[in-house]
């Protein structure tokens, strides 16, 4: 996954923290709170597993995109940036 695309989406998600829930799914998620967002992450992770086990790569890509988006919403809620995750991955590199 291109880091630029992740960062761009993350920045757009951050702007939805102050947007109206009436016009934005992301703003609605922020209004629902952490428990609901974590639940969505879990559901999307299960969708990734199901796609991997029984569907083609196109569906797998779609489900990983859904999961990535919801993880970014969780990170945004917690004030963690994808750059922090990239730094952790870089630290692990051998
Ligand atoms: N990348 C995404 C994205 N990926 C997935 N989703 C939404 O995540 C939901 C997936 O959940 P489900 O499949 O469970 O569908 P659902 O039944 O609608 O969801 P629930 O009502 O069950 O929560 C869908 O509503 C998708 O539209 C996304 N919603 C928004 N974005 C991006 O986030 C940014 C902000 O968008 P707004 O939220 O529209 O402001 C924009 O750049 C969007 O392109």
Automatic annotation (TrEMBL):
CDD domains to which the protein is assigned, alphabetical: NTP-PPase_HisIE_like
Family from the record: Belongs to the PRA-PH family.
InterPro entries cross-referenced by the UniProt entry: HisE, PRib-ATP_PPHydrolase-like
GO molecular function: ATP binding; phosphoribosyl-ATP diphosphatase activity
Substrates-to-products reaction catalysed: 1-(5-phospho-beta-D-ribosyl)-ATP + H2O = 1-(5-phospho-beta-D-ribosyl)-5'-AMP + diphosphate + H(+)
Protein EC: 3.6.1.31
Keyword ATP-binding assigned: yes
Keywords: Amino-acid biosynthesis, ATP-binding, Cytoplasm, Histidine biosynthesis, Hydrolase, Nucleotide-binding
Signal peptide residue numbers: none
Species of the source: Longilinea arvoryzae
Pfam families: PRA-PH
EC top class named in words: hydrolase
Protein name: Phosphoribosyl-ATP pyrophosphatase
Pathway: Amino-acid biosynthesis; L-histidine biosynthesis; L-histidine from 5-phospho-alpha-D-ribose 1-diphosphate: step 2/9
Subcellular location: Cytoplasm
GO BP term, example: L-histidine biosynthetic process
Top-rank taxon, per record: Bacteria
GO CC annotations, alphabetized: cytoplasm
């Amino acid at each position: 996954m291109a880091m630029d695309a992740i960062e761009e989406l993350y920045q757009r998600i951050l702007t939805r923290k102050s947007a109206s829930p009436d016009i934005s799914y992301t703003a609605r998620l922020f209004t629902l709170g952490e428990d609901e967002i974590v639940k969505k992450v879990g559901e999307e992770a299960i969708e990734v597993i199901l796609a991997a086990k029984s569907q083609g790569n196109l569906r797998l890509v779609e489900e990983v995109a859904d999961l990535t988006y919801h993880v970014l919403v969780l990170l945004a809620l917690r004030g963690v940036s994808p750059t922090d995750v990239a730094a952790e991955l870089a630290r692990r590199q051998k």
